[in-house]
Design brief:
single chain; alpha+beta; four-stranded mixed beta sheet; three-stranded antiparallel beta sheet
Length: 364
């Protein structure tokens, strides 16, 4: 047994005791079925717990099981996901649900290997579902776990490397308790989310395994874990047009492939247009502009691209139809029926609608 494995084995008992008394009350923990755990884990990728709660409640309330998800119309599905971003996640969820309906009697499997075979499910999500809902002794290594284990072991290996993650998974396989795998995995995640924090100093005085932690002992938490810097994002300049008459607003559907595929958007184009160019762009859709007003600049950051946006509010004469794939609809319908990504949130207020997370700010 390596020194590292021995250290991690000693961690199990105090960590589980701490989790039993300190676990946050979260809606998906109330009834940890495979479906609930799966939905919550996919939502929690790239999104904070508090932000996820209202999305989770609405999603489960509308699509309570695998069969409901498998048969959900695409626009409704994307609308339920609006504001969470990375929309391929929910598309893959539906593909996995459809496979579950066809091959697993409409139930989400809990076997690790079977879960790995489904679209959009990697080793972490498979481990979370298999251990929490299925009681299978397999690890679930996410960013929180990578950070916690790296600090406990004093490892300066680059956690951005898949080989490092795989090595940690193999080590944890030797450590994970067979009688409480789900609690163990959740305890590691919880420790990383609430104590062994990613930004700023960890709250070591609250840590149940501080006596085992090399980074705590050596004061090396400020540079552990080690993670290689990402490549800089590509910057794109865009102009967004908020086209309105007294009762309608312009939206259009994005292409079925590429960034934000299949979602709806406010009309926009590459580059920063002048007012005159913006009026010509508006007219190209078949509208008759009455007046134009510049709006504030905005920025939205995707994983690999940054949009730097210039906006215009263009009032147009009333009409029933437009060209260029434009839908001219009542703003309240866009909030209710059309999934519009958060990239356009800065300009949604000019339609008097709220998008995604904005809609849930005053809700639990």
């Amino acid at each position: 047994m390596t020194e590292e494995t021995k250290r991690l084995k000693e961690m199990v008992s105090p960590l589980l005791s701490w989790f039993a008394g300190n676990a946050r009350k979260l809606p998906w923990r109330d009834d940890p079925t495979a479906y609930h755990v799966w939905v919550s884990e996919i939502m929690l990728q790239q999104t904070r717990v508090e932000a996820v709660k209202p999305f989770y409640a609405r999603f489960i309330g509308t699509l309570p099981d695998v069969k409901a998800l498998a048969g959900c119309p695409e626009d409704q599905l994307l609308k339920l996901w609006e504001g969470l971003g990375y929309y391929n996640r929910v598309r893959n969820m539906q593909k996995a649900a459809q496979i579950a309906v066809e091959s697993y009697d409409g139930k989400m499997p809990t076997d690790y290997g079977t879960l790995l075979s489904l679209p959009g499910i990697g080793s972490y999500t498979a481990g979370a579902v298999a251990s929490i809902a299925g009681g299978q002794a397999v690890p679930a290594v996410d960013g929180n776990v990578l950070r916690v284990i790296s600090r406990i072991c004093g490892s300066e290996a680059d956690i951005a490397k898949q080989s490092v993650k795989r090595g940690m998974e193999e080590t944890l396989l030797e450590v994970i308790p067979a009688d409480a795998p789900g609690s163990f995995n959740q305890a590691l995640m919880e420790l990383g989310a609430t104590v062994c924090l990613p930004n700023g100093a960890p709250e070591c005085s609250r840590c149940p395994v501080l006596h085992l932690c090399m980074a705590g002992k050596n004061g090396s938490w400020d540079h552990i874990p080690v993670k290689a810097a990402k490549k800089p994002r590509r910057v794109e300049q865009r102009t967004v047009l908020v086209i309105r008459d007294s009762e309608h607003a312009a939206v259009r559907r994005r292409p079925k492939k590429g960034l934000l595929a299949g979602l709806y958007e406010l009309p926009n184009t590459e580059g920063h247009l002048t007012q005159e160019q913006a009026l010509k762009e508006t007219a190209s859709f078949g509208f008759s502009p009455i007046r134009i007003r510049p709006l504030e600049d905005a920025k939205h950051i995707f994983s690999h691209v940054e949009w730097q946006m210039k906006g215009y509010l263009v009032l147009v004469e009333e009409q029933e139809e437009a060209g260029g794939g434009i839908l001219f609809v009542e703003p309240e319908r866009t909030e209710r029926d059309y999934p519009i990504p958060a990239a356009f949130a800065a300009y949604a207020k000019y339609l008097k609608i709220r998008l995604g997370q904005e809609k849930y700010k005053d809700k639990g």
